[in-house]
Amino acid sequence: MAGLFFEQFLFRFITAVFGVWIGISSVVSGTGKALPAAPDGFKPVLRFVVTSDVHLDGDPEQAAAKRLAELFADSYAYADSCEYKGLDAVIVAGDYATSGADKEYELFNKIVNENIREGTELITVLGNHEFISYRDEDPTVTYDAYRRNMGQDVDRHLVINGYHFIACSYSDDGKTFDSKKEWLTSELDAATAQDKDKPVFVIQHPHPFATVFGSVNWGDLTVRSIYSKYPQIVDFSGHSHYSISDPRSIWQGSFTAVGTGSLSAFMSNRNYIHGDEDAPGESGGFWIVEADEAGSIRLRAYDIVSHMFFEKNDYFLTDVAKVSAHRYTWGNMKSFDTAPVFPDGAQITAEKDDEGNTVLVFPKADGYWGAGDYKISVSAGANEIYADTVISNYVRADAGDMRVNIGSAGSGTYSVKITPYSPYAKGGKALTGSVTI
Question: Among 45, 88, 197, 395, which residue's Cβ finds the most Cβ atoms within 10 Å?
């Protein structure tokens, strides 16, 4: 749990030190304010999907390549089932490639061209991975590769169904936005001058610093300082791979920020989430975003692996230009948090996998936001043979029992203690038991 507690401690420290600049209202604003839900009569006039961090490596059999195609298929299937059938844009907030090599661009374009329909705009920005192939060359070569392969400029400002979209790539150093400050400010001024109350959608690769989950470790200070002047902004960013199923992946303060997760694999403050060492197994997802004429926005988190929506992560935003109306502040979201609880009669069992490792099996704990982590201790008498905190399987919409590989364990009877923690680090009652191996 050290990483989780450290990030939250650092976030609170930063907000206390920098006060208004960092958007302290996101922490100390009113709590217990009801989170709005989309009304039955909600009628979109705009729909787009947004993801990031696909990390194509040029292999069409790569799992991420198949998921990119599935993103289009699932999104169009959803749109076709709705009264408003448009899918107006598909947005990838950087790192669509692993290194920026031409073969990765070629695969990305092939998948897009085979699946995109007329009337859907493709919006992309350069992430840090697109610069890797040209790291030892003039960095402007990356820009040239992007323009050659994507057929558009690295920065764009377009209007779709009356809504402004501003997509900003890294400066040509591949790691800052120093050369983009003037352009960003100019485009935001132009977008907000037309209607100061209407949301403006902004996309760049890294999170604005100290906003969504992962932004302390993976955030950017430059865009944060610019965006804080425009409450109308609804920003989408990736880079961290942190899961969109975590409630901290939406944030409201001086503006609105949304983490886009990853289409290849979710990550947590405990590293990548894989099936070998951590319980959840395969993971990835994207947002389906809808807006109506009044400027209200619905965000629905979608699990691309199980092809289901995450039920707990369906958000409805109104009056985004009014900071006082923001309900998805860090403090308000945390105020609904409850300690995860294991179901009645929950038991811990153990089994061997094909390699002879011991796998603990136990039912997931649940709470308002679910369980984010489990602290696990396994002992033989006074000797602790395993101690770790593992990410919960809340990164999958179809999550069932937890399965945790604790490695090789000799024959015998072991005592097990499992303590669930919420995404906001609220500990629940431990599940205890013994297993015989």
Answer: 395
**H runs (alpha helix) in 262-371:** 330-335
**CA-closest candidate to residue 282, choices 300, 306, 299:** 306
Neighbours of 381 (CB within 10 A): 9
* CATH class of the region 2-335: alpha beta
Q: What's the rounded Cα separation, in Å, for the pair 384 and 379?
A: 4
> Is 324 within 8 Å of 33 (Cβ atoms)?
no
The C-alpha atoms of residue 301 and residue 325 are separated, in whole angstroms, by: 22
Q: Which of 305, 216, 297 lies closest to 263, judged by CA? A: 305
Which of 197, 191, 106 shows the shortest CA–CA distance to 157? 191
Looking up tokens 């493709």 gives 122
Question: Could you report how far apart the first and last alpha carbons of the chain are, in Å?
Answer: 27
The CATH number of domain 349-436, selected from 3.20.20.70, 1.20.58.100, 1.10.357.20, 2.60.40.10: 2.60.40.10
Strands (DSSP E) found in 73-193: 89-92, 121-124, 156-160, 163-167
The pTM of the full predicted model, rounded to 2 decimals, is 0.91
Every domain of the chain and the residues it spans? 2-335, 349-436
Those residues whose C-beta lies under 8 Å from the C-beta of residue 382, and which sit 6 or more positions away, are: none
Written as tens digits, the pLDDT of the chain (437 aa) is 444 444 444 544 544 444 343 444 444 457 999 999 999 999 999 999 999 999 999 999 999 999 999 999 999 999 999 999 999 999 999 999 999 999 999 999 999 999 999 999 999 999 999 999 886 667 688 999 999 999 999 999 999 999 999 999 999 889 899 999 999 999 999 999 989 999 999 999 999 999 999 999 899 999 999 999 999 999 999 999 999 999 999 999 999 999 999 998 887 665 544 443 444 468 899 999 999 999 999 999 999 999 999 999 999 999 999 999 999 999 999 999 999 999 999 999 999 988 999 999 999 999 999 999 999 999 999 999 999 999 898 889 999 999 999 998 888 999 999 999 999 999 999 999 999 98
Find residue 234's DSSP bridge partners: 201, 256
Token look-up 């076709």 returns 80
* 232: amino acid identity, one letter: Q
d(CA 55, CA 97): 4
Q: Is 128 left (phi over 0), alpha (psi -120 to 50) or beta?
A: alpha
Integer-rounded Cα radius of gyration of the chain: 22
